Amino acid sequence: MNRDKNVSALTRRDALKVGAIASAAIAAPAAAATLCAPMIVVFDSRLAESLAFARTIGKGHEVDLAAEHAALFAAVRGGLPKTRTVEGMTRWSDWVALRGELETQGWRVTAEERLAPRGRLFRWSMTRA
Length: 129
Hints:
Elements: H1 3-8, H2 12-36, E1 39-43, H3 48-57, E2 61-64, H4 65-70, H5 74-77, E3 85-91, H6 92-104, E4 107-114, E5 121-128
Parallel strand pairs: 1-2, 1-3
Antiparallel strand pairs: 3-5, 4-5
């Protein structure tokens, strides 16, 4: 067997490794851009956990339900800024009302999770359809 032939030959395994590395290199900046993209953050400042969520999730247009309840959700009904995602941590009752209104505006649920077995807060995400 010729030693030079084995050294310079590109195996299928090598090609797959290169492809995986290239994919990761392309995907990482795309994921970082998504995380840094402007978003809408929905929270209730009357609830410490929800307020902490809003402060750690990142910068974006904030919708504080403490103020929205008094205004009968005027900011939400009036249309939210043109962004790709809405991230929220609210009570179930607020989430149900928000979800219904946002779905009529073209938003779709991408994630929904109760934060504790008997927890009062739900963490949810929506994106434009």
